[in-house]
Every structure is written in structure tokens, then in C-alpha cells.
Design goal:
Transferase(Phosphotransferase), domain 1; 4 domains; 14 helices; elongated; 591 residues; Phosphorylase Kinase, domain 1; six-stranded antiparallel beta sheet; alpha+beta
Length: 591
Amino acid sequence: MKHCPKCGETGTDDDLFCEADGVRLEGSGSSSGGGGSGTPKPPGAATTASVRLARARPCSPCGLANADAGDGYCSACGNRLGPVSTTPPLPVGATVAGYEVVSPHGEADFVVRRSLSPSGRSVPAAQGPLGGDGKLLVMAFGAAPEIGLEADALEAMARQSRPLPAFPRLIERGSDADWGPFLAFLPVLTSRPLAEVAASLALPDVVALLDDVMDAAEAVSAAGFGWEPLPQDFRVNGDGSLALSRLRIAHRLAPGKVADVRAVMEAVGTLLLPLPAALGPARLGRLLAGRMATSPDLALGVVHAREALGHIVMDLAPPDGPHELADLVDAGLKRDHNEDATAIASGVLKGEPWAVLVVCDGVSSSTHADRASKIASTTTRDALAHFLRSGDVAFEGAQSAMATAIRAAHVAVCATPIDALPPRGPDAPPSPGPPGTTIVAAIVFRHRVIVGWVGDSRAYWVTEAGAELLTRDHSWVNETVAKGEMTEAEAMVAPLAHALTRCLGPLEVGEGGQIQEIEPEVRVRDLPGAGDLVLCTDGLWNYFPSAPEVAGVVQAAGPDASAGLLARCLVNHALWRGGGDNVSVAVYKHK
């Protein structure tokens, strides 16, 4: 039987948190060891219960303020939440269980040195062998069950024939009368927190570090335990290898089971995402997203994690293709199929480069939305590329060509027999409506961009000064706000918040089966200087709805990033924020 140290409510042995107030439940037993404290408990100091790590905290990836539902994970995106310390720091010079506090060392952890010999006499600080008197150690406090399991796991790992990788060496486990259960470790104090160096790591360094992380997870699993680290537990030695300050939230594995490393990947991913990992292949973002990237019922073992890392190494090279033009489509973390499509083309006319970019987002409530987006994107690209190769790119001609190409895409989607389209898959849910898709397309030539669109896929022009949204969504939200019927904030939480008012395909067919002519919007903008043209679906901009937010993601990739790397960065940022939809981008770097 477990009990809540805060309110006294009881729970079963399988319960982790109190249903009344979310406090972690404690068992009746506790680890035993060291004696009483040489430091009186300071006024207002925490009890054993308040020393443990509290779980209530905002979620960094999705931004939810009160994210903890009582299990230590975000109720919106499932990301593991970090601790909020409720422990007032032990004062430097205080003595606890025979250890003198030297300095803080993280949440409820302190750098200490042993100040008393086993006989209780004071010992000079410089005296003592490995882990002995005067040696700097780290002292960690926590709830008795967690502290006991962490000690058990470290002791089991120390008994293995293989060297103990990355983890600190356990010197003592005990309990102080005032401050509760504790562990004393011999750590690598010369290591640096990964949070301090992560942004400076190159992608090969990231992969090497993840290989060390998997070595550590494999060693823990071989000892019969799983573990759920927090981001601050990861440190880096001077040679770039991994050092770990704790084996936090250890739990025993059932016989024959292997550890699920999704929590481990999430914790280190919090430090490596969005950068530098966002500049790597999408497989890397998926691996570091942990549970967000997989079904809650699907565990990720070390073997499969290593397989994923092997694929990442193969994909690590910069994307192929022109430096200035790229596109990328990703299914996201929550969808089992992709309904987006992109198409790009480039060439040279009279010594000057031109580019065509098209991004389409299949309407998810329609039948064969993936086919609709593919037909629309390729039809539009081919029509615009043919127009540019013809040499007739006068100002008015380009605007007309854009509208004509999008109308041709609309007719092509409408003309495709629904019955002739192959099914999406045996497990795909039925879709009631005919094919439909949004579209945004752009022509870039001679320091000018012509943008055409139908629906809510968007185009942004991004420079060092910021970003400008070049399109206006054809959506129920915009129309409702324009009529003054609601504020934007009210409309965005309404049931029709994501409803479109225009799209391509038979969804726009009128009475009697007549294909209604679609009216795309077209805009022309001069590009007087260097910048990045970004076309995207709502799978990206839903996570970065304002132009300044998009500018921040683009600028994070660095001014020298190729179009391919910038596309990777944009998609990976969306995955890291939750990846709830297909994510597609097309990028052109204008000089």
C-alpha cells in the first residue's frame, strides 16, 4: 500500500501519483544507511516529500502552460515534463549525514565532500582515496522508492562484466533524519551540461553522442532495468563522449523484457531539438521525438533505435539538388499516410534563372486527397514551367499564366474518375467527399515573384529584417472575422476554425455536375534584395502562425544554409512542435 506524503490519501502498489493532488506516492519502506544530520533543519525547509522532484511544469515543445495531468507528461503532446524543485537549497558549508555541502549541482542535487570519518571524527579535506574522505561527490535526494531503485540499478550495473558506461559510481545510499533518502555518487565533475554545448555540435557529433546514449541504455537494460532521464542528467566530457549525472526513475523490467528507450530519446531530444538536430534528416527528429513519434502501445528497444540511427547516418549528407531550390514532404508524427504534394522546376532564360514552386495539401475529409494534391501540383508546375521556357514572361503575362495554370489543375482534379483511383490502403478510413486540395504556387524571375493560391496553404518572403505573409487564407476564420461576426481569437476556437471556403477539385462542382470555374488569387511582389521564399502547408504554419515566428525558424538555420537544409529545418521544427499533420515546404533562395 502506498500513501500520499502531502494529503495522506492511499493508493495501490501500482499507482504512481495521488489522484487528489498529483504528488508522487511513497511506499512504507525506505532505503537505510547513513545516520542523522549534523545540520539542524532550517526554518521552512522541505520535508522528505517536498525534496522529491515535483512534476507540474509548462511543456516546452507545445507551449501548454499547465501541462501536467498528474503523470509527469504533457496532456497535449505527451512530452515528458521536467521537474520544478520545491527544495530550498542546502546552504554551502552545511553538514548532512556526514557530508559537507560545497555547492548546488542541479535540482535537489549538491556537490559535497565527506567531512566525517566512519568513527565520526573530522577528516582533512585533502585526505582519502577514491570516494573517501575529502573527495568531491554529488549528493542527490528524492523519494524513498525512486532513490532505492536508482541505487539498485547502479549496483546491478556495477556487477556486470562490461565497464560501466557514462554513469556515476555509487558510493553510498542512506537516509537523513531531516532531508530524507539520499545517494552519494562519484561523478565526472569536469564534464559540462549538454544544454551548454548542444547548439555548437555538428551533426556527426550528435550521432556519436546518440550512439553513447544507446550504449548506456543497453547497459541499463542488460542489468534488468529501464530508466527515464531528465534533460539535465546529460553531460558531455572534454572528448565529446557522454557523461550522465543520474540514473533517474529506474524501474525493474519483467523477465525477458528489454527497456523501452523512448523516454531516453525524448530527454536528450529536448536538448538537441530544434537545433542542431533540425538540420539533419527527418529520421533524426523522429528518433528524438520519442513517444511523440510512435504509438503509445509501441515500445522502442535499443536494437530498433540503433537501426534507426544507422539509417540516419546514411541520410546525414546534405540534401542533393540545387543550392537555391528544394522541396520536402513529411507525413508527420501522427498520420500513417501523406496527403500533401510538392513540385518544383528551374531553368535559365536569357542568362537569368527562373524557378517554379508548388505546394498542395489534400483536403483530409475528401476521397483520395493524396491523388488530388499530386495531380494539382504536377499540372500547375508543368504549365508554369512551359510558360517560362517559352520566354513570354511579361508582367501581365505571368499573372495570367499563374491563374490559368491553377485553373487547369482544378479541371484536372475534377476530370479524374474517382472509381479509377487506387484505394489508399486496407486500413484507411472511408472518406465521404470527392477529391479536394489546396494549392499555393510561385514563379520567381528577374527579382519578382508571382504567387497564386486557393485555400490555406501559404507563401512567405523572409529576409534578415523579418517575414511577410504573401497570401491570405481562403478560410471560414478569415471570412467570419472580415464580416465582424467574431474576433480572430474567438473564430480560432470555433468548430469551423479549420474549414476552407475554396479548394480545387469536385468539392467545388455545382448543381447538375457542372464544374465551377475556380478563382485563384494572384499577387505580384518585387524582390529588391536577397531573401528566402517559403511555400508551406498548414502542417507547418499551424505551429508558427505568425510571420515573425516563421522568420525565426528560417533564421535559425543560418544565412549560409542551402535550400535543402532550410527545408529540413522547417519540417523538423514542425515535427518537434508535435507533427500532428502532414508537413510540406518548398524553398527558393533568392540572391
